[in-house]
Design a protein that fits this description.
Strand content: under 5%
Structural class: mainly alpha
Shape: globular
Radius of gyration: 30 Å
Number of strands: 2
Strand order of the largest sheet: 1-2
Largest sheet: 2 strands, antiparallel
Helix content: over 70%
Distance between the termini: 85 Å
């Protein structure tokens, strides 16, 4: 409704009315989500509704249906709750933009498709939402379309997601061909009924994981997400915290019964997740754009979530999705508040000392940073340590990788905080003159998200602190079978692992403080770095590698195809066909000269030819 009203009538609405409608419909959606969520908490049975018959041929029947169970209800709360705060924030942040109404129409459409993705009771309904959020990311990343670089970033996100979506489609076709259904419950029954389906499930889950890599920015399909920072900051928060990048994790959790039967695929997921977490974290250490740092942080955190899924710890992955939504939305919206005050500046080397000018932004940003760094007892401490505990029980090497990535996270996040909010201001005098705290529409969502970042982790207290893990118990009916999620570890081991994680984080934070506050060291300017540091600063030149190996050959083939196939072969056929028609026409028209004697001669010759043919036939 919000999309249709703002999309069709936006130009006739004031910005205030448009913002109220755009935010109000999300608040209404959040209210409805709360009804279903708390109903399930109270013991209500999940809802599986068939809306209408959609596709039916031979022995295949696919309905357009809605499924609301514990998993989808959790995502409904995240998408609509965080989405509403981002909409309210956008009223202040985008107030002076000429495309205000169009922006809110796109935001509402984004939420709509994400809700459709999580509410579908089969893969085909999910795929509509899956493609829809891809479309909306393209529209929102390239929202300021007068800048060609932003358009290129939007196209990059769209095309790279199509690569992942091809894998998603192949996985769907494998399941449809072998089980004649894409309904989640029907698939669960089919694979639970016995039969030798192992190799089929392995291939299907691997291809589905390729789709998840594209949507949730895992190696090798992650490079679109940092470029997605081209869009307005509320878009970055929506993509990174509430909607698009969590879609891959939701999909794997939704069909966890398939992945549980494919341990080979789970191992691949765990390794890819751990590699992505570490790889992206190392890149984040050297970035200086405030939004790019947060973007690589998202890629790294998503890697930790996938690592949990790879170990079968689905509820741990969902737990970190939830806490990450709180603190990452707060961080992105906080960065937007800083950029707003700095007049569009995003380089943290040109900031400094902002905490005295922007106290609300500073404290909310600090709380979210403490949460993502895993400091007790903020939200990220509980969810991240739970994933690391699972990793320690299953694979010590991947635990070490995840722990080091988490330590780097604490370092580069506090590097960002210290360079932005501490020491003295390093910008221009004009920027300093205009520094001020953001309006209430911006700071209020930050305060709410900061509170959630501080206390949100108590929804999943570990066994060493409390006898029940509420979130795990709530999600238990959704997951195929009880899996080891760190429960085997003794309480003493849990405390040791927590102590190790917190010690790593404290060392990283101390190192960042010493470098950027005590010693006032500024990151080197581009061109002054060398060796490995320069390679990391340039993001390991992965984009350049992709351009050299994929983009350049495709462009060459396109140019060769145009020069040879199109200009020579296609144009040659067309041109020479025309020329042959001209030549033959020029000769044949001599037969129509208008000379009566010539016509009589031809008629006589024709009669003779007919008579000769008849005589020969006799």
């Amino acid at each position: 409704m919000g999309f249709l009203i703002n999309g069709l009538l936006g130009k006739s609405l004031s910005k205030s009315i448009s913002g109220i409608i755009g935010s109000g419909v999300i608040l209404g959606s959040f209210g409805i989500s709360c009804i279903y969520f708390f109903g399930l908490v109270g013991g209500t049975k999940p809802i599986d509704v068939k809306i209408f018959d959609w596709i039916s041929f031979s022995n295949i029947h696919l309905d357009f249906g809605i499924l609301i169970d514990q998993l989808s209800a959790m995502w409904l709360m995240i998408v609509t709750g965080i989405g509403f705060l981002i909409h309210v924030y956008s009223i202040g942040y985008m107030h002076d933009d000429e495309g205000f109404q169009r922006f809110f129409a796109y935001l509402n459409l984004f939420i709509f498709f994400m809700l459709l993705l999580v509410l579908g009771n089969n893969f085909v309904v999910m795929f509509i939402g899956w493609e829809g959020v891809g479309l909306c990311s393209y529209l929102l990343i390239g929202f300021w379309h007068k800048n060609q670089a932003y358009n290129d970033a939007a196209k990059k996100a769209f095309v790279m997601n199509r690569i992942g979506d091809l894998g998603f489609l192949i996985g769907m076709f494998i399941l449809l061909y072998n089980f004649h259904t894409l309904n989640y419950n029907a698939l669960h029954q089919a694979v639970s009924g016995g039969g030798d389906f192992h190799h089929i499930i392995v291939w299907a889950t691997l291809f589905l994981f390729i789709g998840a890599c594209g949507k949730s920015a895992q190696i090798p399909l992650y490079t679109w997400l940092p470029d997605a920072m081209a869009g307005p900051t509320p878009v970055s928060a929506l993509i990174h915290a509430a909607t698009m990048v969590t879609a891959g994790i939701f999909m794997i959790c939704r069909v966890n019964f398939l992945y549980t039967l494919a341990p080979e695929t789970q191992h691949v997921i765990a390794v890819v997740g751990a590699a992505t977490a570490l790889f992206a974290a190392t890149i984040g250490v050297m970035q200086n754009d405030i939004k790019k740092i947060l973007a690589y942080s998202t890629v790294s955190q998503l890697g930790l979530m996938f690592m949990a899924l790879g170990f079968g710890a689905y509820s741990s992955g969902v737990f970190h999705v939830m806490t990450h939504a709180f603190f990452k939305a707060c961080l992105f919206l906080g960065s937007g508040s800083v950029i707003h005050a700095m007049g569009g500046e995003q380089d943290i080397r040109k900031m400094g000392g902002l905490r005295k000018y922007m106290p609300i932004t500073f404290w909310t940003f600090m709380i979210a940073t403490l949460a993502i760094s895993g400091i007790p007892f903020f939200a990220g401490f509980f969810s991240k340590d739970e994933i690391l505990a699972v990793a320690f029980e299953h694979n010590k090497i991947l635990w070490a990788v995840g722990s080091f990535a988490s330590m780097l996270t604490a370092y580069y996040m506090f590097r960002l905080v210290f360079l932005t909010f501490y020491t003295s201001f390093r910008g221009t005098h004009e920027q300093e003159h205009h520094l001020h705290e953001s309006p209430t529409t911006i700071t209020l969502p930050l305060i709410v998200l900061a509170i959630l970042s501080a206390v949100g982790g108590f929804i999943g207290l570990p066994a060493v602190f409390y006898h029940t893990h509420w979130l795990k118990d709530f999600l238990a009916p959704v997951f195929a079978a009880p899996v080891a999620e760190g429960a085997e570890a003794s309480h003493s081991m849990e405390l040791i692992l927590m102590g190790v994680a917190v010690s790593f984080a404290a060392v990283a934070i101390g190192w960042a403080y010493m470098r950027f506050v005590s010693k006032h060291i500024l990151p080197a300017e581009e061109g002054k770095l060398s060796g490995f540091a320069n390679l990391v600063y340039k993001k390991y030149k992965i984009d350049e590698l992709y351009n050299a190996m994929i983009v350049a050959p495709l462009l060459f083939l396109s140019e060769w195809g145009y020069d040879v196939v199109d200009k020579i072969i296609v144009d040659g056929i067309v041109v020479w066909s025309g020329r042959m028609s001209m030549v033959t026409g020029k000769q044949l028209r001599q037969l129509q000269s208008g000379n009566i004697g010539f016509y009589l001669l031809m008629m006589v010759l024709g009669v003779i030819a007919v008579l000769l043919y008849l005589l020969k036939a006799l």
